[in-house]
Design brief:
By secondary structure, the chain is mainly beta. It has two helices and 33 strands. It folds into two domains: about 200 residues, no CATH class; about 160 residues, Roll (Pnp Oxidase, Chain A), CATH 2.30.110.
Length: about 425
């Protein structure tokens, strides 16, 4: 009897959102799982007249916990070439291979040709342009966010399709290690994790209404077709009527490009206080800006999503939906401790100045990370105009360093302007 093993390096990931499927390459180390919530009942009694004390127990499955997933993608902006199947845009505008994940994080519920928005005709969550693409959090003040279906196609033979249903993006963590390639670590939840292989049709031609899936059933809306004539690209069937069969369109532009990766070593940080006189005493406690050269850093965006699950007796309940919690944008950056005798805005001065404003409970600095360099393409900018910065801490190693933690805050407590993500894409 032959055994089939599945290797992570043979896997592909596809994201289905609003009638479109994106192919998004992921790094090694992706994961998905779904656990069970159970209740244990135990007996604890004294001895009977016969000297017996029952000590048994029973266990019951109450519900399925929300599915959990995580994976990493590279930061890969590009300018669309406008023509051909799978293109992101009909205009030469900037997009990113992983942009659908940012759209889900930021509250998009619709996709219209090349833009994501909260509602049809509403505010764009992602606004592509000829020189850059801007992602804002203006639509994320909502109790629920948009959901998508994520499919993992596992193996190079006898392929297995795993479907993560109603996926939400809870966290995006942008890391810029000095020797690496700019990477985003994504994580979130799903209502269910399903083995969808039985609902899959694998062939080199598009299925028609009389075709069957691997479980022997006739194809139906929502089933999956793996195109054996196109590297087993995944499509979701949207119509199975005789003569009117239809499937999702796909986006895969720049997936195979090699010139849209970003080197972290080129990253630049600008630190500018909102005011040089934060305590309004007439004297400037802070410099107009600080010159800090990074050795590493991280920015983490979090939605703090939780799931709601019924508690009916006699069945194993499944999550029925999600709600958002507090939106959080925070991070840290490291740099060497330096002193410049010809200037007063080096990292040592930054530490002294932040440490010195003890009569200000909330400070405000504009931080702009330009990952990939101050100019040129490709690069990613994280613009956070009103950050509260903690006092930097010293790290004693071969070279003394400073580590600074920060929280990006909106201008008002109900605002959504704590961060803007801007992609600058290369022509691929």
């Amino acid at each position: 009897m032959a055994q089939q093993l599945y290797f992570s390096r043979d896997s592909k990931m596809f994201i289905e959102f609003d009638g479109v499927v994106w192919e998004v390459p992921v790094l090694d180390g992706f994961s998905f799982s779904q656990a069970t919530n159970s209740t244990e009942i135990t007996l604890n009694e004294m001895e009977s007249t016969g000297g017996v004390s029952r000590r048994g127990r029973r266990a019951f499955n109450d519900s399925l916990a929300p599915g959990e997933w995580s994976f990493s993608t590279y930061v890969r902006p590009f300018k669309s070439s406008t023509t051909g199947t799978g293109k992101a845009d009909s205009a030469a505008e900037v997009h990113a291979v992983e942009e659908v994940l940012w759209a889900l994080f930021a509250g998009a519920k619709n996709y219209d040709v090349s833009t994501f928005d909260y509602d049809t005709g509403g505010t764009n969550v992602i606004t592509p342009g000829t020189s850059s693409s801007t992602i804002n959090l203006g639509s994320s003040n909502s109790s629920t966010l948009g959901t998508a279906n994520v499919y993992f196609v596992l193996g190079s033979d006898n392929r297995k399709v795993m479907k993560l249903k109603d996926v939400t993006v809870n966290e995006a963590s942008v890391d810029f290690d000095i020797d690496g390639i700019a990477t985003i670590n994504w994580s979130g939840s799903a209502s269910e994790v399903l083995d969808f292989t039985g609902s899959t049709h694998e062939d080199n031609t598009a299925p028609v209404h009389s075709d069957t899936t691997q479980d022997g059933g006739t194809i139906a809306i929502g089933d999956v077709w793996l195109d054996a004539n196109d590297s087993y690209r995944l499509y979701v069937l949207t119509n199975v009527t005789n003569g009117s069969e239809a499937r999702t369109v796909y986006r895969d532009e720049a997936v195979l490009a090699t010139n849209n990766f970003i080197r972290n070593r080129l990253t630049v940080l600008s630190v500018t206080p909102t005011t040089r006189d934060p305590d309004s005493d007439g004297a400037n406690e802070l410099e107009a800006s600080y010159s800090l050269t990074l050795t590493g850093g991280n920015v983490t965006f979090t939605n703090n999503i939780s799931y709601i699950t019924p508690e009916e007796l006699g069945i194993v309940n499944v999550p029925i939906g999600h709600v958002t919690g507090t939106r959080s944008v925070s991070g840290s950056f490291t740099c060497y401790l330096t002193e410049d005798t010809s200037a007063t805005n080096a990292s040592a001065d930054f530490f002294d100045d932040v440490r010195g404003i003890t009569n200000v409970v909330t400070n405000s600095f504009a931080l702009v990370f330009k990952i990939g360099g101050a100019s040129g393409t490709p690069r990613l900018e994280l613009n956070m105009p009103t950050c509260h910065i903690e006092i930097p801490t010293h790290s004693v190693e071969d070279v003394i360093s400073l580590e600074t933690n920060f929280m990006a805050l909106p201008t008002t407590i109900a605002g959504t302007d704590e961060a803007t993500i801007i992609y600058h894409g290369a022509v691929v």
